[in-house]
Amino acid sequence: MTEQTVFVIDDDEAVRDSLRLLLKSAGLPVKDFASAAEFLESCDPEQGGCLVLDIHMPGFNGLQLQDELRRRGAAIPIIFITGHGDVPIAVQAMKQGAVEFLQKPFNDEDLLAGIRKAFERDLEDRSRHRHSSLARERYATLTPREKQVMEKVAAGLSSKQIAYELGISQRTVEIHRGAVMNKMNADSVASLVKMMMSVSKE
Amino acid sequence: MTLRATQQELQDYLTLAEIILLTLAPDSTVVHINEYGARLLGWNPDEIIGRLWIENFVPAGHHEEIWREFNEVMSSNDEQPRHFQNPVLTRSTGETMVFWHYRCIRDGNGGIARVVSTGIDVSSRSRAEKDLEKSEARAAAVLNSVVDAIVTIDERGIIQMFNPAAAGMFGYHKEEVLGKNVSMLMGAPHRERHDGYLHNYIQTGDAKIIGIGRELNALKKNGEEFPIQLTVTEVAGDGKQRSFTGIIRDISERKEIERSIRQRDQEIREAREQLAHMERLGTLNAMTTGIAHELNQPLSAITSYAQACYRMVEAGMHDIDIDELKAALKKIGAQVGRAGQVIRRLRSLVNKRDSVREPVDINELITDTIEITRIDSRVREVRFMINLAPSLPTINIDPVQVQQVILNLVLNGVDALEARDPADRRITITTSLESGNEIRVGVHDNGIGLLEEHKDKLFNPFFSTKSKGMGMGLHISHSIIAAHGGRMAYNPRGSSSGPGTEFFFTLPVTDGGGST
Known about the structure:
The complex is a heterodimer.
Chain A: E1 4-9, H1 13-25, E2 30-33, H2 36-41, E3 48-54, H3 62-71, E4 78-82, H4 87-95, E5 100-103, H5 108-140, H6 144-154, H7 159-166, H8 170-183, H9 189-200
Parallel strand pairs in A: 1-2, 1-3, 3-4, 4-5
Helix pairs in contact in A: 5-9, 6-8, 6-9, 7-8
Chain B: H1 2-16, E1 20-24, E2 30-33, H2 35-41, H3 45-48, H4 53-57, H5 63-75, E3 82-89, E4 95-106, E5 113-121, H6 123-145, E6 149-154, E7 159-162, H7 164-170, H8 174-177, H9 190-204, E8 214-219, E9 225-235, E10 243-250, H10 252-286, H11 288-315, H12 322-350, E11 358-360, H13 362-373, E12 383-387, E13 395-397, H14 399-416, E14 426-434, E15 438-445, H15 473-483, E16 488-492, E17 501-508
Parallel strand pairs in B: 12-14
Antiparallel strand pairs in B: 1-2, 1-5, 3-4, 4-5, 6-7, 6-10, 8-9, 9-10, 11-13, 14-15, 15-17, 16-17
Helix pairs in contact in B: 11-12, 13-14, 14-15
């Protein structure tokens, strides 16, 4: 498992510095940035961890950064912090998948709890991401006929029905089906269905 | 010869004594009239003698009474002289009044009678008497009818005259004050000092009030004091006795009007200050979220530093980075100062207070004000270009009010920039010394510019182009600057500095201010 880092992004130097010290004293790896642009420059979409992100910043604000990260397919969880509680903005941020919305000044326990939650989600997301990318890789190795068969198996059709629909013999369907289960490394129809879902999500 | 001479002598005496000599027959025919008498009527004696006196020389309106008196004299045996006064007709002026002494004389037989009269022309005298009477009456009428009270005193301060208006004003009857000291009509402190004033004036001729007039308090009979305007003139008396006439006007009403005008002015000023205060609160209200943000930043940093310190200490003394801990504690202090600074800046906007003037460095005030505007989140997207002239003289102003003006202009500028790309929003603030005696402060934005149809109305109350604006900002700013003896205007900039608008105001440099 890769190391998870807390990325603090706030234009206020004192807030940034104090958060860096707080998180460091809590034993968490921290990197801080004065602006969204600065973060995006050094951002690796694969890096693990979470963002502690100020909403109100000149130029690129917190919500815009959230949009930009989603556009880039970076699923890193976000904890928003704000100098004033603005309900509509909080609602929008949460709808867009923020883990937590904290109003300054906040308690360290609330922040750390948020970070723990974000780290968990980050782990899940990344393992799901790993699974689906594995499924996509395997799916790519299937022949067009095998892809057709996999699709119909995942849709719940019997071999007989598949044979009828595709105009091939039931025996041929069985052979393709065996190849699909093998190539996809699926141990059951259920896991095949799961893989099919993460493949077709794209 | 001797007789003749004696007769002529007699005539001369009579003429010199201005005495008329007239002898009438019983039918009033003139038997004799002397030179003086005839000439008084404008004729020669010859032209009168032989004519009927009453018919020709007495005005028709008096005929009846003269005849009655004449017949009475003729029929009486009384030898005592009688007198009578009646007008007679003259050739030139019409009538003249003559006062007669007369009696009837008879010859030895008690037969033919004559009325002999001596007369004095009293017209000239009676005219003078009448004039005197008239002028006295007129003076009395004036004194009695004037609204102003008039009191005359002698050089010892004793009241000699007290007109009805004075009686009405002071509540005394004339009889109650005549012959008494005028100080009884005066309020403190003059009441006790008046004799001294008078004495001093008589001795030195040094006039404190005579011919000058002043306002002071007078005292009514009922003890009530009231404000008067007193004018005193010295009247040259006959002989060495001097007297002084005081004309007294009750100015209670004028004082009351003055007081109510002062009160009205005070109310207007208070209302203006109230309005300015409300406008400041409005500005503040618009910045509430910004203020919360600006206070929460340092509070947040303080909390995090404190919690970090706690964790560091808790982690164990042997692990502690003592320098880092000390630095964090120091930073907490700095952040407390930062929060305090925000509150200090805002306090001037919130406080309601009377206008005060104090020497102010305008550049410092502007720098401070821009810090306040930065609290407004919209302002954080704007780039400020600050061109402050060095070493400007300090000016005597109300810093809170002028700060309000600067704040108003900057926030208006920020509003005007809304349509511009955030990267391109610019506000330029300049100060300069103009012609040595005024400071000019300009706030230029590169925003959308003024609409032609708005230009006339900019400084009007309740004029606003903003949906949430009260429309009082520029109006109040304008009146604040005017109250400081400066002026405020706008300057639609040409293409040289790009589009946009500059609002500017001037403030006079007074002698009181020094160089910074």
